[in-house]
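Here is one such tokenized protein:
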Amino acid sequence: MMNSTLLFGMPGGSEWILIFIVVLLLFGGKKIPELMRGLGSGIREFNNAKNDVKDKIREGMNEEPKDIKKPTDEK
């Protein structure tokens, strides 16, 4: 039985060159920097949102519950 990671592994050197040529033909030399800037800002926004969610979860875990009523001695 063949290992599936061998069939669908990372592209090698010649595959990267082919991918680069296809991207260059599709977008042109002038559009690639704009594409990379957009990609970078998207990744940056995703990481900021991820960190905000982590911080809010940590804050929520450190807060004491406000709605819990303490038992009183009622007789």
Residues 29-61 form one domain. The chain has two helices and no strands. The CA atoms of residues 36 and 42 lie 10 Å apart. The longest helix spans residues 13-62.
